[in-house]
Amino acid sequence: MNLSDSNLSSLDVASPNTGFKYFTVSVYAVIIAVALVGNLLACLAFLVSPMVRRSPTNHFIFSLAIGDLLTTCLAVPFDLEQVLTNQFWSHGEALCLVWTSSYLITVPSSIWSLLAVSVDRYKSLKDPLNRFRQTPFMTRKRAGVVILTLWIYSGLFAFMPVMGWKRELHSVENNFCQFNITPEYSLLSSFINFVLPTLFMCGLYWRIYKIASGMTRNDALSQMENSSFTGEREAKKLRKRIKTTKNILVVACAFFFCWMPHTVLSIASAIMFTTCPKCLYAIPSEIYTILLMLGYSSSALNPYLYAMRNRQFRNALTGIVPALRCKFDKRHPASSRFMSSSSGNRQSSSLLRHHREPSTVLQATML
């Protein structure tokens, strides 16, 4: 899926101009900072809040956040270093394999997680006959099994080059770390791990759109709102599911628009690698860098597009500090009593000063 980067190993790549290098470093630094903060907060909210963990959908969002964290920690920093060192690699063969394999694992796992949660959204909305009841199609246990399966599949697919399906004997040559994959592997990975899931998601969301905007749904919703308290409650649940589905759609669209240009370039590079090498070498290296940065920006956008817009995640984040303080008070009661007494003394001192010294307004009045 990233043959374009490996193609540069056989080129005498000119050093990028200073202005473009500063721009690239600045963008990478922003992506790393924003992605780390956003995804760490999303993971923390999931881990500390039972309410967040109750929804199977949020388990897929947690998996997506883990993938984005791994991308931010294991892939993006090495790309940034390559820009700073003009593609010079000094970390050896093992870390080169860590860098390339982490990229090949996290990007497919993200797209498959989005596909799984899209299937869950479709199943929760497709049947309007039973008063839009909560479907048991996806449970937390099933979500965990699906997530584990997706990560195992992504790992096995990513390690195929390490196990032998590679273009060169070594990944590091002449102090250059290359994506040591064949054109066939690149094409297969691009189609199986991006194009096909994307097309399937487009079909799902088209069906979801037809369901959400259909006359049957509107009639059923109006009947539920006018029938009883139970009907109003079911209608509220339906609105919540539709809102959640829209949020997932926003994340999927962002992922699609961020990674599609780089995937198209990767497919074109794999084809030109065997048919027209001169055409491949004529593409400026800055194009690869810009499109890869656009893809990495998805890791920074995902937590803010979904987790920070989700009320459960926001409530969990606002309750983290009180929860940590409560745990601290239970473990260290003496310290908590000291802090409380100190706080009380400060309040008492403040009150005494308030009584002894007139306020600014009162002084102005007296003068």
Please supply descriptive tags for the structure shown above.
single chain, 367 residues, mainly alpha, Rhopdopsin 7-helix transmembrane proteins
Indicate the topology.
Elements lengths: L2 H5 L10 H31 L1 H4 L2 H29 L7 H34 L14 H19 L24 H31 L1 H13 L1 H47 L1 H5 L3 H21 L5 H8 L1 H12 L1 H24 L3 H7 L1
Helix pairs in contact: 2-4, 2-11, 2-12, 4-5, 4-6, 4-11, 5-6, 5-7, 5-9, 7-9, 8-9, 9-11, 13-14
Task: Give your account of this protein's structure.
The chain is mainly α and 367 residues long. Helix content is 79%, strand content 0%. It has helices at residues 3-7, 18-48, 50-53, 56-84, 92-125, 140-158, 183-213, 215-227, 229-275, 277-281, 285-305, 311-318, 320-331, 333-356, 360-366. Helix 5 (92-125) runs antiparallel to helix 6.
| CATH fold naming of the largest domain | Rhopdopsin 7-helix transmembrane proteins
Report the major sheet: none
Distance between the termini: 78 Å
CATH architecture of the largest domain: Up-down Bundle
Q: What integer is the average pLDDT?
A: 76
The CATH class of the largest domain is Mainly Alpha
Taking Cα atoms only, what radius of gyration do you get, to the nearest Å?
Answer: 27 Å
Unreliable stretches covering 5 or more consecutive residues: 6-14, 128-133, 338-367
Number of strand segments: 0
- What count of domains describes the coordinates? 2
What general form does the structure show? globular
Helix/strand class: mainly alpha
Helix fraction?
over 70%
Residue fraction in strands = under 5%
CATH homologous superfamily assignment of the largest domain: Rhodopsin 7-helix transmembrane proteins
Helix segment count? Answer: 15
- Succession of helices and strands: HHHHHHHHHHHHHHH
